[in-house]
User: What shape does this take?
Amino acid sequence: FLVWISIIELPMKTARDFQRLKDAFKMLENLTYMNSDNQNYALNFKNKIIVKSSHGTLTHCLSVIHKSKSNKIKLLGKSKNLDNVFDCLFSTFRMMLNLTHGNEYTCTEVGKYKGMIEVILETILFLPSTLEQSTS
Assistant: This one.
């Protein structure tokens, strides 16, 4: 578990970094799937580092997508780096869904993290228009 947590604490600069992070969140997604003991353990590990890292990942992915959109870069299908960014973003959301599913404690703790609700809402509200533009 410590190895995977150390991966999600690394900076994301290259397509390979996003791929590695996506893989780490995929493992954490599987670990927390419908298992409240693992959800609680993952949440409390290293003073809730998983929440901090999830927030940072979502924020960074959104930033990269915003920059790409403002530069009028086709977002999907043209850039391997951006494909990895989207994969990483979605993997983070799937892990967070499993982390909080059916567990009031983990849901409350994730929601209490400063800026988490805002970044989730920004992603949910911003992403559909981005995906629509990239497919046209």
Observations:
- Residues 72-77 have pLDDT under 50 and may be disordered.
